[in-house]
């Protein structure tokens, strides 16, 4: 479904993404993890078209989309959420979702019907007629998810959709994400909540200082000394190993 080939993004002298490659198979949930400032969101901007790679390519369903504008990629079937949720505060929840639905449905009545369907699907049924500004953090996260889902994507890019949620809210939204995949949407997700990564992802890529440093099943990647060092600093893997032995 998606293949990023040796993508590099430079901002002046800063290399935010450095020769990064990853794949997301159709029908899968793939994770992208890494410490803060690793370049994960920048990589998402290259996939979704808000930035173009300085070097490398982005392929979607075998086609090179590296130079396509974001709206063209959306029409092809790529949707994304954003870390900072910014709903249209003057609109209702269902009207916010309809903004996404208008990509496929020109008539307002059709877009609103689609928005109501998607809103119920992500657990916003009772909130649909309320003002978007009245939603809790968890509600806004669901709204961000719904607005992207309303574009009827083939590939959904989730940028820390669980950030800021408490454990029970995370537990509630994990089945929603799994159900989206089960209905045929391929998911690539940036996430710091390892509970979600372990529960949802079949394959995980680890980005550190702009480079992919590990890939594989979540349990395997989380035990990788290189990954532990990237998160916790030099010598951390050896310290943890010693602690396990003494325990």
Automatic annotation (TrEMBL):
Protein name: Amino acid/amide ABC transporter ATP-binding protein 1 (HAAT family)
Protein keywords: ATP-binding, Nucleotide-binding, Transport
Keyword DNA repair: no
GO biological process: D-alanine transmembrane transport; L-alanine transport; L-isoleucine import across plasma membrane; L-valine import across plasma membrane
CDD domains linked: ABC_Mj1267_LivG_branched (cd03219)
SMART domains: AAA
Species: Microvirga subterranea
Residue span(s) of domain ABC transporter: 2-234
GO molecular function: ATP binding; ATP hydrolysis activity; L-isoleucine transmembrane transporter activity; L-phenylalanine transmembrane transporter activity; L-valine transmembrane transporter activity
């Amino acid at each position: 479904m998606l293949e990023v080939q040796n993508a590099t993004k430079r901002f002046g002298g800063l290399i935010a993404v450095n020769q990064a490659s990853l794949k997301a198979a159709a029908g899968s949930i793939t994770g992208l993890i890494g410490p803060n400032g690793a370049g994960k969101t920048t990589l998402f901007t290259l996939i979704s078209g808000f930035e173009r790679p300085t070097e490398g390519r982005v392929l979607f369903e075998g086609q090179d989309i590296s130079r396509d504008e974001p709206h063209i990629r959306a029409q092809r079937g790529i949707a994304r959420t954003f870390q900072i949720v910014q709903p249209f505060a003057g609109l209702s929840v269902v009207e916010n979702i309809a903004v996404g639905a208008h990509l496929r449905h020109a008539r307002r009545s059709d877009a609103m019907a689609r928005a109501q369907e998607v809103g119920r699907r992500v657990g916003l049924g009772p909130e649909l007629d309320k003002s978007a500004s009245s939603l809790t953090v968890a509600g806004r996260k669901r709204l961000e998810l719904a607005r992207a889902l309303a574009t009827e994507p083939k590939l959904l890019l989730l940028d820390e959709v669980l950030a800021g949620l408490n454990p029970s809210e995370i537990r509630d939204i994990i089945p929603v994400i799994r159900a989206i995949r089960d209905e045929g949407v391929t998911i690539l997700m940036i996430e710091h909540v390892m509970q979600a990564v372990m529960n949802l992802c079949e394959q995980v890529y680890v980005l550190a200082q702009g480079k992919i440093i590990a890939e594989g099943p979540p349990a395997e990647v989380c035990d990788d000394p290189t990954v532990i060092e990237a998160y916790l600093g030099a010598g951390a893997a050896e310290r943890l190993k010693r602690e396990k032995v003494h325990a």
